[in-house]
What does this fold into?
Amino acid sequence: MARERPKAIRLTDRAAEHLQAIMARSEGKYIGLRVGVKNGGCAGMEYTMEYAEAANPLDEVIEDKGVKILIDPKAILFLIGTEMDYETEKFSAGFKFNNPNVTDACGCGESVTIEPAHL
It folds into this structure.
């Protein structure tokens, strides 16, 4: 019997609340958040995020806590099991990815080394 693949991304309550507020202010311009990865940074890969006005034909669409997340198909294996959070610190605020597939990160925290998930 085949085992169901876990969601690529799930949101914490804080991330969902922040994204819901952004989507509400967009007055229907955006349908969700597109998330992916690209080569770059000193550790090899960087997360990408942009507001999506429409879904691409091959996007994987996940809905979590009232937020639609569109994932580039090339990024799926790098993101499986990831939790996306929104953190507010003393001098900064932003989204943070808690990804079980990360094997290393650069000192500045802008890029990571990610191994594809083993299903």
In short: Residues 13-25 form the longest helix (13 residues).
